[in-house]
Each structure stands twice: as structure tokens, then as C-alpha cells.
Amino acid sequence: MIVSVPDSKTDESTSEIALVDVSSGTRRALTRGRKGISSPRWSPDGENLAFLAKDAGTRKNQIFIMPMQGGDARCVTGNGEGVERFSWSPDGKYIAFVAQDPPLNAEAIKAHNKVFRVTDGHFLLKQEVAPWHLWIVPAAGGDARRLTQGKFSLGTESGSIATPAWSRDGERIAFTQFPGAYWAPSFRSVIGEVDVGLGITRVLVADQGARYFTYAPAGDAYAFQRSRNGDQNNGTAVYVHANGRSYDATAAQARHFSSYAWMPDGKTLIMAGPSGTHSVLWRQPLSGKATLLDLGNVEANNGLGTTTSASSSDISVSNTGTIAFIGSTANHPGELYVLDSTSSRPRRLTHVNDFVDGLDLGRTTAVEWTTSDHLAGDGVLTYPVGFQAGNKYPLVLLIHGGPTLSSNQGFQRLAQLLAASGYLVFQPNYRGSNNLGDTYQHAIYRDTGDGPGRDVMAGLAAVEKLGIVDPDRIGVSGWSYG
Question: Contacts for 294-298 with beta carbons within 8 Å, 24 or more apart?
């Protein structure tokens, strides 16, 4: 796991890779003083740990491999543009990685190019965005070999870069393939696949919007994500290809899933996503009904992703079926938790943020209401520290962005900071939010401004009915779409 420690004097954070014993919770640092630490990945035999860190020579993120029996980490790449994502081959002999091509007009950039180009929904760009492509490098060290070519890209300038997925025989690598490096047409992504030996690429999944692909750890199935039925206004579904056909394994729930991971049997998925004002995990067999896992008061909400997501992996399934994830509660920030099985409850392994337990914090609860057009809305209300019934308090609206995101009852630093200053804090989930199913998320279509505004006001009215709001002291804040 990655542990980041902020320094208030320098206003910077330092990060380290920590190794946590699943049985005892004992934690020890594996790295110290390295810049840009991210993406720790075990080798298939567990004897080595690969990770990304800034290299002193290129000053870019490169792949380092650390032997777990002792010895210094060694750098195995020297890509001039840096490494974005990587994955081990099944036999542990190679690492596939994604890196951006050099700037397409490097000389013009050096001359401080004054020309900008309006294209693909972007402007004020100093250069045309170069594509990202796939490479492999021997884990023992040696020259990297490029596997993909062309105008298509394995990433976009918005940060949508997926981790390459090796087939179990190590002969093929699948990847998210975008039309180009610009974000605007990224909804037309497909899943590409390259033959490692021949370098021949083909489209494996042609469904528009397909991305975040993984092969099952057993059997012949594979999975990928895309907007349900290809409609971007719906939630993100998980599609499975098994027994010669592809289907939406999550169709019965008709809701958004932020990520997924395979169980070792290759017949079951662990799904992560929002549900009401909670962030939860499901057990989803390839055929059959999903089961909600019992997380108690823990929100599995701190950057959940699979090894194929655009963010670093915060959920991991061992080869024995133990599930590890980062979670928080309403009054405690992120910690590492494990589920020993899908029928057990979370067991907390770390105490990184125990200092928070000594602070006075505001109580957090859910608020529900019905919108003006009879949709069920919800939000999160945090009470001021020292709240006393019978008193009325100033309120701050804290509106999330996206719009296809949502607020939940996990630890929220800004809400608690405001609560410590005596404010009620209300975080409404307006239409377009991804926590109440496809109908609610889709309701923002052709109602992008007025509809969410009505929902926020309906939610505020529900809070005011509690009799605790000073109507003359209501402030509003938000970020991005909010």
C-alpha cells in the first residue's frame, strides 16, 4: 500500500510503499525518500515488487523492481516520456507498460510556440497531443520493445489510461484503444489486442465505449466496462464474455459500478460502486443475482479501482480469495481493510489516521426527499461540532461535481472542517448523480441545469424541515459541475 504523509512546513507530501502483514497488521516501510511513488505490483511468484517512481536521470516515472529477499530496487525502464501504467507477464519474465510518444512538434515547443489550435473540443494548446502506446521490457533488464503503432492511443490527455492486460498464456496483451489522444472522442474507445511475438494488433471488443479490460484468472472468460447499452447517460456496467457470448453481468441492478475485480475461480466478480449514501461492494457471479457484502459502517470509497482502472489500484483479491481495500467511516479517514471471505465483515489492518480519533467531529447522516418530478433524491448532512437540539445553525451547501459522481457517508475533510466552525454541511446528490440507479442518473439528460437546481433546493427544503437551519445564514459552494 502507499502511505502519504503531509508536511505542513513545505506544503508537500512524501509517500512510501508500506508492507502490511495481513494476519498481524504489522507495517514496515519498503521505500524511503523516493519521488513519485505509485502503483506497487507483486510479481506472479511474489518474489519481487515493481513500482513507479521518478528516475534521477529522466526525472520521469520509471519502473523499479525490488527483490523481497533483500537488495536495492533497480530501474528497468528509461523511457523519455515516463511510464504511465504497467503489468507483469504471467511468467514474471516481462513487464508491459504504457508510455506517451515524444512531443510531435518538440522544436516548436522549444521556440515557445505562439500558435494554438482549436480542435477536438480543446483550445490554448501549445502542441498537438502525442498518443500513448504499448511496450514490453525484460524484468531482468534490457532494451524495451514497442508493440503498438498508429494514430490510435492507449490513453488521452484527460488521464484516461488503462493498465494492459496479459492473457494467461502470455501470448497476447489487451488494452483500451482510443481513436486518438484527445479526450473528446474517447467515448468511441474499443478493446484492442496485440500478439506479443508478432506485434500484430486487432480489435477484440468492438462495442463503443469499452474499456478497463481483464482476463479471468481461470477459464476462458474476460470482462470489460462500458456505459450500459452504450448510452453515456447510463451508469457504467461490467460486461462479461463467456461461453461464446458477451452480456451485461450487472443488468439486473441497472446502476453504476465504478470498478470490479475477479475472484480466483474466474466465475465471480467483486463489484464496487455507490448505493444511496454509501459506497459498497457486491459479489456478482457470472450468472445469477448479486449479493451485497456486509461492510458494517465502512465505506469502500477511497479511490476504488481495479488494476485496469485509470487510477491506482485500491482493491485487491488474493489467490485465496481475501479482499483488501481502502475504506473510511464517517468519523475516520482511509485505512486498509480486508475481508477474509465474501461472507465476513471488514477487518481493519492499519492505524495510519488514528490521530483523528482524538478530535471532536460532527455527526453525519443521510437525508432523503422526493424531487418535483417524483424522483427519489438523497444527500449527506453533517452536524456542527457541539450540536444542541433546539438551536438553529448556519448551513453550507457543498455540491459535488461530475455530474456523474455522488456524496456518501465516508470521511469528508472539508465537511468536518466546516462542522468544526459551527456549520451544518449539506451535500446533495442531484439528478445525474451515480448513486441511485440509471433512471436517476439519466434524468439529467436534456435537463442539465434547471433539474439539478430543483433537486438541490428540494434537498435543502428537506433539511430545513428538521428545524435546525438558520434561514438567514445559508451559503453555497461546490466544485466543477457543482
Answer: 294/345, 295/327, 295/345, 295/346, 296/345, 296/346, 297/329, 297/330, 298/327, 298/328, 298/329, 298/337, 298/346
